[in-house]
UniProtKB/TrEMBL annotation, chain A:
This is Sigma-70 family RNA polymerase sigma factor. Belongs to the sigma-70 factor family. ECF subfamily. NCBIfam families: sigma70-ECF (TIGR02937). Residues 209-308 form the DUF6596 domain. Residues 39-99 form the RNA polymerase sigma-70 region domain. Pfam families: DUF6596 (PF20239), Sigma70_r2 (PF04542), Sigma70_r4_2 (PF08281). Keywords: Sigma factor, Transcription, Transcription regulation. The lineage of its organism: Bacteria, Bacillati, Actinomycetota, Actinomycetes, Micrococcales. Residues 141-191 form the RNA polymerase sigma factor 70 region 4 type domain. Residues 1-10 have a biased composition (Basic and acidic residues). Residues 1-25, 434-466 are annotated as: Disordered. Residues 448-466 have a biased composition (Pro residues).
Automatic annotation (TrEMBL), chain B:
It comes from the Bacteria. This is YciI family protein. Residues 39-105 form the YCII-related domain. It comes from Agromyces salentinus. Pfam families: YCII.
Length: 466, 112
């Protein structure tokens, strides 16, 4: 369902240009290995060397060599083991050149003699491979350590866990490359200097820190979902990256319902990408979307994650509830089939968990669509009077939409104008301006607008993301 | 890893009523665990002295100190496995609730 990742260092292009190289197959194998093995290779090397830069450099080097060697020698049966061995040897060379004579180097040299770049066969080695799963999880938790600045956690997670290049991350976050590089350097320096451990937290701490990991992934997704400013509305790379990383966390921690909840939420949101923006780059609200353009495979995967029997010893968490709301939308064949009462119910549970004004806003919209527009308007008035949402454009937008439904066109127009003033992106302003033009049109001049859900709000960010 | 732990006051202390453990217990626990090398309370800024050398001359004054509503009330030197252990220890200190704690790694140590 996700596109193939572009090759990273351009090295596969170089390899593919060689005479006789089976270009597409090798390139595909390297790309796939990059997607599937990068995290494991880097995570293993970081544990062994405690040197993040060395680990990244050696891993990148291994993938470059793979592009060349696999073209001439064929793709190995176990690309992951091949890459880990080549990267480890590269790291060893560098350490030897630096004159490092640590126990770790000696240990590796012994391992070198014992095992080649082949799949392990003896039970002890397979057990050791199993242990590498912990390395990837160690990496995920270390990158999201709360002692690092939030933006550094996001950058480091994308770079080291996700394998994205620094310039790619910089472009995605609209910051200069030097700024992003500096952010990564500082984060790695702090990990080393402050003694941030390379470990999966235990006990009560685990749940708390997992929330932090998921918050980082949610931020990556939100950044891709809606640019905070500017014209480009959708940046698919980051959303796909968030899904891939959430999938990894679920794979590593299958019993954590909130991790599964986040993955389901991201999948169900992303499945609608193609329908969310029209050819002119304008926003299409949920109820006007062509549902045949939703990615059916991704919807199915999201619902599958949602329906997977999980631990039921705790009430549903925030991600789970948000995913269930998206699940209600995904299961409705037509907008009018949407079970809005079920959605209101989920928002009640969300509010009980987090009394946030954005959730109150979304709940009020659902109440309106569940057939109680006046109750919804009263709630939004109360919310506006509380001042809790300040200059959040979706509040007047939601008021405008409800006012339009109950036939108060003038009041709706005033609220649309306010929403346009506050909207942070050009596509959103255009969408609201279109709506404004509709309510300003003399009655009977056009076809009646179908009932709509209003512009989709980005999912509620996790507490730490705020 | 050794950490210098600044124990400081804070204008917004915890008001949940959760008092945690008394300082004596915290000290005893960490002395026994070997995670506390030294530590003490510090007298207030009124009793502090400022020393500077400028153009070869030693200038001694009773201020000015940084205007701050938060001041350092004490310190401990911790010896921990890593930052997570230091955080766990700091979070049990009563001033993590009544004030705030800053963990600073020593310059020389595992880092560079």
């Amino acid at each position: 369902m996700t596109r193939a990742r572009p090759d990273r260092a351009g090295s596969t292009d170089a390899a593919a240009g060689r005479p006789g190289a089976p270009r597409s197959e090798v390139r595909e194998a390297v790309d796939r290995a990059y997607r599937e093995e990068w995290t494991r290779v880097v995570a293993t090397l970081i544990r062994a060397t405690r040197d993040w830069d060395l680990a990244e450099d050696a891993a990148a080097d291994a993938f470059e060599r793979a592009a060349v060697r696999w073209a001439s020698e064929g793709v190995p049966d176990n690309p992951g083991a091949w890459l880990t061995t080549v990267a480890r040897n590269r790291a060893l060379d560098v350490l030897r050149r630096r004159g490092v004579e640590s126990d770790k180097v000696r240990e590796w040299m012994v391992m070198d003699e014992m095992q080649g770049p082949v799949a392990p066969t003896d039970p002890g080695e397979i057990a050791a491979m199993g242990d590498e799963i912990d390395d990837r999880l160690r990496l995920v938790f270390t990158c999201a350590h709360p002692a690092l600045p939030l933006e550094a956690r996001v950058a480091l997670t994308l770079r080291t866990v996700g394998g994205l290049e620094t310039p790619e991350i910089a472009r995605a976050f609209l910051v200069p490359e030097a700024t992003m590089a500096q952010r990564l350097v500082r984060a790695k320096r702090k990990i080393r200097n402050a003694g941030i451990p390379y470990r999966v937290p235990e006990g009560d701490e685990l749940r708390r820190r997992l929330d932090g990991v998921l918050a980082v992934l949610m931020l990556v997704h939100n950044e891709g979902y809606l640019a905070s400013s500017g014209d480009r509305l959708l940046r698919l790379d980051l959303q796909e990256e968030a899904i891939r990383l959430a999938g990894l966390v679920v794979e590593l921690m299958p019993d954590e319902p909130e991790a599964a909840g986040l993955l389901a939420l991201l999948l169900l949101q992303h499945a609608r990408s193609a329908a969310r923006v029209d050819d002119a780059g304008d926003l299409v609200p949920l109820d006007e979307q062509d549902r045949s353009r939703w990615d059916a495979a991704e919807v199915a995967r999201g619902l599958d994650v949602l329906d997977r029997p999980g631990r039921t010893d705790a009430p549903a968490g925030s991600y789970r509830l948000q995913a269930e709301i998206q699940g209600v939308h995904a299961r409705a064949a037509r907008p009018e089939d949407t079970d809005w009462a079920a959605i209101v119910h989920r928002y009640d549970d969300l509010l009980a968990l987090t009394p946030s004004p954005v959730i109150r806003l979304n709940r009020a919209v659902a109440v309106g669509l569940a057939g109680h527009p006046q109750a919804a308007l009263d709630e939004l008035d109360a919310l506006a009077a509380s001042g809790a949402l300040g200059s959040y454009h979706l509040l007047p937008a939601a008021q405008a939409d409800l006012l339009r439904r109950v036939g108060r066109a003038d009041a709706a127009a005033e609220r649309y104008r306010r929403a346009i003033e506050l909207a942070p992106t050009e596509p959103e302003r255009r969408f609201l301006a279109r709506r404004l033009a509709e309510v300003e049109r003399p009655a009977g001049a056009g076809p009646e607008a179908p009932p709509e859900a209003g512009p989709e709000a980005p999912p509620e960010a996790a507490p730490e993301a705020g | 890893m050794q950490y210098f732990m600044f124990v400081a006051t804070d204008t917004q202390p915890d008001r949940s009523g959760d008092e945690g453990i008394p300082i004596e217990q915290w000290v005893a626990e960490n002395d026994e665990r070997g995670t506390r090398i030294a530590g003490d309370r510090l007298r207030s800024i009124e009793d502090a002295t400022l020393v500077r050398v400028r153009d070869g001359e030693t200038i001694v004054t009773d201020g000015p100190f940084t205007e701050s509503k938060e001041w350092i009330a004490g310190y401990d030197i911790l010896d921990c496995r890593d930052l997570d252990e230091a955080i766990e220890i700091a979070s049990r200190h009563p001033m993590a609730r009544g004030g705030r704690i800053e963990l600073r790694p020593f310059w020389t140590g595992d880092g560079e």
